[in-house]
## 1
Amino acid sequence: MKKMLVTGGAGFIGSNFVHYTLKNRPEYEITVVDKLTYAGNSANLETVLDKIEFVTGDICDRGLVDKLVGETDIVVHFAAESHNDNSLRDPWPFINTNIIGTYNILEAVRAYGTRLHHISTDEVFGDLELDDPNRFTEETAYNPSSPYSSSKAASDHLVRAWIRSFGIQATISNCSNNYGPYQHIEKFIPRQITNILSGIKPKLYGTGEQVRDWIHVDDHNSAVHLILDKGRLGDTYIIGADNDHVNNKMVIELICELMGKGKDWYEHVNDRPGHDMRYAMDSRKLKHELGWQPEFTDTESGMKNGLQQTIDWYTNNRDWWQADKDTVESAYAKQGQ
Ligand code: NAD
Ligand code: TDX
């Protein structure tokens, strides 16, 4: 058995990663550390609490991080403040968790020689023009736009510096926008699904021309496992599912259609300040060197099957999101969103 510490394992991607690992990789003994912020939910793991160790704790607590890392073989680091719109309202938690928290993890893995995989985002690269055919690669220069993406960029730089200066055994992945079960309803796709389920029209920022290279969360997590198994230490891997032809307007129209509403049953709301236009990922390194392939793809939109599964999940798990809906919508309403 290998011991694995999963930071942020009660959040969206982290909890899906825990479920994925328990299902597909029983050789891992998992400890989750999570602060249970507004975005963390222990209910995400309630069906597996007897199979893992769950520690409620803050990665900004250096002593706790040192103790937990000292007891494990591998750290998979998901914990972060993750929502751009919140980072525009109050950047501090992003600076603290994403930068100081990652620093604490780096110092601990350095002390114990522990293997680390750092989870990051495409947003560190900034954005592309809508008509730019290029995609982000492992060599693209960093150019983040928001407090969130700049704090993630800072965390990536720290990991790269600890690799080069101290020789820690680490890899980094930068993934595009995820969707799937257990995603907080502040985010684009679950917000629109739960809007429709609540009789509210979906809300499209601005014109909706923006492009996100959507990937199902299980495809992200299968890539993370491949990198843990076969990734080259010190390297960065881009993860994306080739959905960079799908803009926000098309996603909202597809959700409306799949949920039995007219294609136009949505409204335009205020745009996000500094809104990134286009993300597109070139994941050829991951595919060619490690043999990764996304499973949630289909010819029509690249995401219809995954979206249907996600719609079904939110429809069948109203108890999971209902209590947060009014709070999330009133925070958006104050900004005309
Ligand atoms: P999330 O907000 O759903 O979950 C984050 C989790 O981290 C929560 O459970 C929260 O309680 C926990 N957390 C926050 N601060 C903490 C702290 N100080 N100590 C311990 N735990 C803390 O986020 P997510 O969407 O699951 O994202 C997970 C990771 O993946 C992040 O690093 C994010 O930058 C990255 N990422 C996300 C996406 C995406 O589309 N959601 C895409 C690429 C990369
Ligand atoms: O109601 C909405 N209407 C809308 O048009 C919301 C909430 C969003 N949008 C737009 C903004 C973006 O162009 O949809 C797109 C996706 O928005 P988010 O779900 O907020 O994601 P984004 O800002 O792109 O960032 C996500 O992907 C990269 C994650 O939240 C980050 O954690 C990850 O790093």
## 2
Amino acid sequence: MESKVFLGIESSCDETAVAVLAGDGSILAELVLSQMDHAAFGGVVPEIAARKHLTVLPGMVRAAMYQAGVGFGDLAAIAATAGPGLIGGLLVGTGYAKGAAIASGVPYLAINHLEAHALTARLPSVGPVEFPFLLLLVSGGHSQFLAVEGVGRYRRLGSTLDDAAGEAFDKTAKLLGLGYPGGPAIEAAAGGGVARFGLPRPLLGRAGCDFSFSGLKTAVAQLVAACGDGALPKELVADVAASFQAAVGDVFADRLQHALGMMPKASAVVVAGGVASNFLLRARLSEVAGQAGKSLIAPPLRLCTDNAVMVAWAGIERLRAGLVDGLDAACRPRWPLPRGPL
Ligand code: KG4
Ligand code: ZN
């Protein structure tokens, strides 16, 4: 095992996360602080998020390094999320990482958040999955199938034509008067409901593996409006949540079947991003992957949602591939995969 360690920093949205990994990918420390300040606004307020990152990040780095039993002299490199995400938070995380990299005399790695989600399944404790694999990335901002052929080598097979899957969960939760973030709230509510409403399954059976969720969201809005004014009864909320989740499950299953047809040589199917923590969706995906003779690799829940372990690990993978970034590397609020220049 290499004695030098990797520091990862994630601050692209409303989670401040810090992790310390050994060079072989074993996790020495991982901390995540979820900002609860945004719940009252029904979504993330960028300026509040950036200020909170700035307040907590230095102390979290010290705490993570203390927990890992290492100091700045033990670092091999520092990796921070440089996009896509909210620019204020990205500037806080990358600014800190660059400063610490200069002070410690180690390389700086600008990590693409989507690439970090994509490579999580290659962590020794999760997979490890061999290249090439088929990735379904489903988060608050993205829904896409990628052929992951190597570090930095991604081919987009399909993506959403409108809303991201997580966005559909969040918007539907809002319509149902459930809390933010909507995904976990819908999953919890659906557990006690019956999927008795026939909601649309957009693009089902269509060629390719694109997604569309806006029609589904509109159908839920119409259903809720038809139920009259005021708060919906709890049983009805549960039934609508269950119906919504079942529709998304059908869409995921169908789209995966098509994506597998487009990448028959995939070693496995990997699912990543916050929506990948949903158990019903995992079960549907696992069933379809199994029918094609592939296994479904889903990271543990804490590594599906935003975290810094994935950032440090992407840094390890990129450094191994000789892909270091300069200190002049910028942040990119929009930064799709395949990774374009910074
Ligand atoms: O990857 P992530 O933590 O942050 C982004 O990079 O976007 O994903 C957050 C998204 C949110 O939209 C949230 O509602 C959704 O993931 N999510 C879920 C679940 N847990 C989180 N969606 C469905 N079911 C869940 N259990
Ligand atoms: Zn994410």
